[in-house]
Amino acid sequence: MDEIRIADHSGLSYTTTCYFFPKKTEELQLFLVNNPLKKIRIGGGLTGVSGGAVPSEDECFISPTFLNNLAWIDQDSGILEADSGVTMHEIDVFLKQTNWFFPSMPGMPKATVGGMVANNGGGPYSLKYGKISSAILSIQVVLANGQKCEFGGTATKISEGIDFKAIFIGSEGTLGIITKVIFRCQAKIKHTYFYRFVFEDFSELLSSVPVLLTYDALLLEAAEQDALHFSSNKNEHVIWLATSLELPKDASNYFSFSRENETIMEERFAIGKNLQTYKPFIDLDVSFGLNTAKSAIIALKELLTQHNFENIFFGHAGDGNWHIHVFFNDDRAKWDTCLTKFDLIVRQHQGFISGEHGIGRIHTNRFRKGSSPTDQALYKSIKQTLDPNHQLPSFY
Ligand SMILES: Cc1cc2nc3c(=O)[nH]c(=O)nc-3n(C[C@H](O)[C@H](O)[C@H](O)COP(=O)(O)OP(=O)(O)OC[C@H]3O[C@@H](n4cnc5c(N)ncnc54)[C@H](O)[C@@H]3O)c2cc1C
User: Fold this and answer.
1) Gap from CA of 55 to ligand 1 centroid (Å)
2) pLDDT-based confidence at residue 103 (cuts at 50, 70, 90)
3) Domain-wise residue ranges, the chain
C-alpha cells in the first residue's frame, strides 16, 4: 500500500500505510468485522484544529469521505439526508436554488457532515439557530465491531426516554463512525441587514455585545484590532452584526457604525484563514456565558500580555465563544505554565475550553483536568458498551 500523509489544521501530522476509504457503508462494516481489535482513527475533511483526526503510530486511518450521497427526504418540510462524507460546500450548493438554509456553516467549506456532527460544529448563525445539534433529527452510526445503529427519525418532537443520538454529537470519533445524518433545514431569511461597528477600546466592544444582541441579531462576530492585521489591517476593534430588522434610528446616538452588505463578513473570515500560515500557533476556543464573558476575556488578554505571548482575539462574540490564537514561538515550558493559569481563569469564570473546535489530541490533558468524576464515569460506561475493545480513541 502507498504511504499517505494525514494532517489537519492542528499542526499534527502522520504518514501511514494503514488506511481505508470505504465507498459504501457495507464495505466499512465488512472491514471492521474482518479486522477485530484493530485500533482506528476516523477522519473527515481534515479541517479540524484539535488533531482529533490525525492517527498515531498504532492506529489505522478510516475516512468515510467517499460516502457522499445527499438527497431530500421531503423538500416541502426541509428534511434532507446526508452521508457523512458530504461537505459543507456541497450542502450550500444543494440548497442554493431552494427556500431552505443550513445554518451551521463552519469556516471551512471542506468540513464534512461526519466531522461537523462529531465536533458539534457551529458558525456565525449558531447565535440564532443553535449549533449543528439543533438541526439533527437522526444519526446512523457503525460501531467498531461493524454493527450499524440508527438513533432518532424524521419526527421533530420525541420523548421516548433518553435522546441517544445526542451521545454521538461531539463524540469526536471515540464512540463510532457516523455514516449518515438526517437534518431539518431552516427557512431562508427574507431580509438580512449587515452592519460594521467600530470601537476605539476593546473593553467598550465587550460591553456592547449584550446591548447589540437586543437588535434582533442573527449573527454577532467580533475581532480586536490585532486580529484585523490578518484581514483589513484597520486600526480599530470591530463587531459585525446581521439583523432581520433595520437598526432603530437612535442607534447612531450610542454607536459608531456603517451599513454594509454580506461581503463585509469576508473581513471577519479572512482572519481565521490568513493566520494559518503566519507562525506556529495554539488555537484556544474558549466559551463563556454572556454574564462572565467580558471579565473573562479581559483577564485572559492581561495574562497573555503579562507573559509576552503574541496573541489575537476574535470570534463568535454573540455566543460568548472566542478564538484566541497564541503564537508561542515554540517555547513549550513557558507556554505550559501560562496555559495552566489560562485554564484556571476559564474555570473561575464558569467557562469551557472549547465552544466548537473540540478536544482532539491537542487538548486532552486540559479536558481531563477540568471534567468531573461523574462525567468521567458516565463516559467510560458508554464507551464500554459501544467500544468494549477500545479500538477507537478515548477522552480518558
Ligand atoms: C480557518 C478555519 C475556520 C474554522 N471555523 C470553524 C467554525 O466557524 N465553526 C466550527 O465549528 N469549526 C470551525 N473550524 C474547525 C473545523 O472546520 C470543524 O471542526 C469541522 O467540523 C471539522 O470537520 P472535518 O470533516 O474536517 O473533520 P476532521 O478534521 O476530519 O475531524 C474532526 C473530528 O471529527 C471526527 N470525525 C470526522 N468524521 C467522523 C465520522 N464520520 N464519524 C465520527 N467521527 C468523525 C474525527 O475523528 C475528529 O475527532 C474551522 C477550521 C479552520 C481551519
Assistant:
1) 15
2) confident
3) 4-64, 68-187, 193-357
